[in-house]
Amino acid sequence: MKRLKDMPKRIGKRIKKAFLRPVRYVHGIAVLVRKKEFEEAKSRLRRTLLGMSFTDGLLFKMLIYALLVSLAYVYLYPVLYMVTNSFMTMSDIINVAVRWIPSSLNWENYRLVWEEMNYPKALRDAFILAALPAISATVSSAIVGYGFARYDFPLKRTLFVLMLMTFIIPPQITMMPTFRMYANYGLLGTIRAFVYPAILGQGLNAAIFILIFYSFFKMVPVSLEESAKLDGAGPFKIFTRIALPLAVPAIIIVFLFSFVWYYNETYLSGLFLRGSEMSTLPLLLEQYILNYTSIYPEGSTARELMQAVKLAGNVLTLLPLLILYFFTQRYFVESIDRTGITGE
Amino acid sequence: MKKRLAGWRRRLVDVYEKIDRTWFEHLRKLRHRLTHNRVIFIRPTKLVLCNRLAIPLTNKKRRSITGYAFIMLWIVGFAIFALYPLFNTLYLSFFKVRMDGALLDLEFVGIANYQAVFLSDPYFVEILVGYILETLINVPVVITFALLIALLINQNVKGKGLWRTIFFLPVVITSGPVIAELMDQGATTLPALSDYRFVDVVVGNVGGFLATPLQALFDQILLILWFAGIQILIFLAGLQKIDKEIYEASKIDGAGPWASFWKITLPSLMPLIMVAVVYTVVSMSVFSLNEVIVYIRNIMLGESTPALTTGYGYSATLAWVFFIVMSLIILLFLGLLRIRKGRERA
User: Fold this and answer.
1) What domains can you pick out in chain A, each with its CATH number?
2) Which of B222, B239, B199 lies closest to B142, judged by CA?
3) 3-class secondary-structure state, position B99
4) CB contact under 8 A, B163 and A65
5) Is the pLDDT of residue B179 over 60?
6) How far apart, in whole angstroms, are the C-alpha atoms of residue A322 and residue B173?
7) Virtual CA dihedral for A168, A171, A176, A182, nearest 10 degrees?
8) How many C-beta neighbours within 10 Å does residue B324 have?
9) Which superfamily, per CATH, for B114-174+227-345?
10) B212: distance to nearest CA of chain A, Å?
11) Mean pLDDT, residues B288-293
12) Nearest CA to CA, how far is A40 from chain B (Å)?
């Protein structure tokens, strides 16, 4: 080291060259030492960049984070677009320079939608319309899932497969007779049109929920229930007193999913709730947008300017769910582990 | 926070026990009524039917009766809300139906409705073909991206929870009108894709047959990726179940990350890919913005303009055609995956 530093500058240049490309003919011993260090540094650098087997190196890490961030941007883009644009004033929308950040927080759009949709009442209706069927679906799928998980009976396999098959039956094919049935019994336009199928285990995506409870109860050891049985509890009591309290995580997951899906559902609710007082928020939003598009013709400036207001409506519709998701996302994310489809 | 949560939990348990004591008491009485009456009388050792026929009950039989009692709710619901409507729709699809108040005026027309679907309906076949092509293109895209994202998150990255939260967000907020509005305003396409004329190049270089669905794919790329939420979770759960030792063993045998992905990861995920494919096809097909189902609903409600349609019976036909096509698509995908699997084994 020391010898190298003391060398005159003229030679220094050649030494520098040796650093970059250690060649044997340059400078006797000094070069050999350099070469070794150079090799070490090179391999160290390679190890940090590429790692022992490429997958644990820095380069790979950077690649992964870059991919993750860009994909996350792609996923969040519509949400970001919606939120920022909903705050824009008319001049912001026209102004090309304003792309992401509105010039001021403009609550006017929200006020308009809030009043037009009668938001507090609409929100209450939407919550009731989502919560009651969700509760019914949770209760029924817990009972059915328990039955499938704990008891053996003839035709069990067939029934179970049929239960899973109901998932792929599109609602379009069953809705016509159901619609007529509801019309005959005066259930159209009432919440019962959603609660009855849910309580009979035929609600929205009920097959998934039954599957979740099925695999959850399969995991609970039978010995607990056997000891309760020895103490003289009947099957029903065992179910309500022992199995259900153990299944709280599954209950929360199923309720949350069911709630969210019912909240967002528009196809059937648009059909069954036509012309009734009750309506879900997405339906109201649809109605609201339809009204505006019929008032203002295509391509008119007024319609362009309504963009922000419509997006404010979108945000108001999604906000309750976003808040709910923010607090309970753990359960959503854990859900798939509970279905047991990965095979235990 | 934890303390408060515990308090809430206790309160919930209290409420639950109260319900358990009062409501369930009624339910128990109801059950007693159901199991101790003239038609069915269940005694500890035998089952008496109609006061005449006594069937001795073994332990096994009693358990299966209890089992049926538990799933009875579902059986009834299945009969009312799935089986009956399914066959009713099939039945009606062979008739010309006129609504006469609450009564249906039926006129048997044989397979005329099915002929009409393919021969005289000006829109449906076109919409259906569009749907088939879009599904065939979009489902692999969704599955690939879901797999990619799952693999990325499964690496040793910081903030796994955060990533999962982000990628699962669309599942929570996907609803028809919201998506429709976003699509309307062009928020479901990436500006970068159109800015650099990437789409034009790709779409311009394939045949006219594929151009439309591909254009649709790029126009709604974000929306399509939004369908991948649940699938990501499915794959993540699967990835975490794969034994780490297999990877170590393969590494010692000299397999790189690339080889071990194709030889270990993908084969072990195969059953889950099938599940994810079925889920994707179904969720895309029944999504409320799907043109086919919008068309079927409009015909059923008599909101569509063409007079040639025969309303109820015709929409029943359309629904069955749609159902069959959807099942065929699922079978096709599963078949393709099977073939792959078989080849690997050989």
Assistant:
1) 2-50 (no CATH), 58-104 (no CATH), 109-339 (1.10.3720.10)
2) B222
3) strand
4) no
5) yes
6) 7
7) 120
8) 11
9) MetI-like (1.10.3720.10)
10) 23
11) 80
12) 24
The pLDDT value given to residue A145: 92
Residue recorded with tokens 């899906």: A261
Chain A environment of B323 (Cβ under 8 Å): 169-170, 172-173
Contact residues, chain A, for B193 at CB < 8 Å: none
Closest CB to B64: pick one of A152, A245, A289. A152
* CB proximity A236 to B under 8 Å: yes
Strands B95-100 and B103-108 turn out to be antiparallel
Q: Which residue has the tokens 């339910």?
A: B27
CB B313 within 8 A of CB B97: yes
Q: Contact A341/B272 with Cβ under 8 angstroms?
A: yes
The runs of H, that is alpha helices, within chain B are: 2-35, 59-78, 84-92, 112-119, 124-154, 160-173, 176-184, 191-195, 198-205, 208-219, 221-226, 229-241, 244-252, 257-260, 266-285, 291-300, 311-345
Cβ distance of B85 and A163 shorter than 8 Å:
no
Contacts of B271 in chain A (CB under 8 A): 343
pLDDT < 50 regions, chain A? 1, 22-23, 344
CA atoms within 13 Å, Cβ hemisphere of A34: 22
As a whole number of angstroms, the distance between CA A141 and CA A148 comes to 10
Is residue B74 very low, low, confident or very high in pLDDT (cuts 50, 70, 90)? very high
Contact assignment for B288 to A153 by CB distance below 8 Å: no
Distances, alpha carbon A152 to alpha carbons A242, B40, B64, B103, in Å: 19, 21, 6, 43
Give A289's contacts in chain B (Cβ within 8 Å): 177, 180-181
Does the model's pTM come out above 0.90? no
Q: Which residues contact A37 (CB under 8 A, 6 or more apart)?
A: none
Cα–Cα distance for residue pair B150/B144, rounded to 1 Å: 10
Chain A residue whose CA is closest to B329? A168
Mean pLDDT lowest among A28-32, B176-180, B222-226: A28-32
Smallest CA–CA distance from B275 into chain A, residue: A341
Q: Which two tokens stand for residue A329?
A: 């996302």
Look at A267 and B176 and tell me if their CB atoms are within 8 Å.
yes
Please tell me which residue of chain B has the smallest CA distance to A265. Answer: B175
* Cα angle B259, B230, A341; round to 5: 70
Contact B227, B280 (CB under 8 A): yes
Residues B336, B330: Cα–Cα separation, whole Å: 10
pLDDT of residue B194: 61
For residue B108, give the H/E element and its range.
strand B103-108
Which residues belong to CATH 1.10.3720.10 in chain B?
114-174+227-345
ipTM of the complex model: 0.80
**Of A336-340, B322-326, B338-342, where does the model show the most confidence?**
B322-326
- All residues of chain B having their beta carbon less than 8 Å from the beta carbon of residue A166 are 78, 82
Out of A116-125, B68-77, B153-162, B178-187, pick the least confident. B178-187
Comparing alpha-carbon positions, the chain B residue that sits nearest to A201 is: B74
In three-state secondary structure terms, B107 is: strand
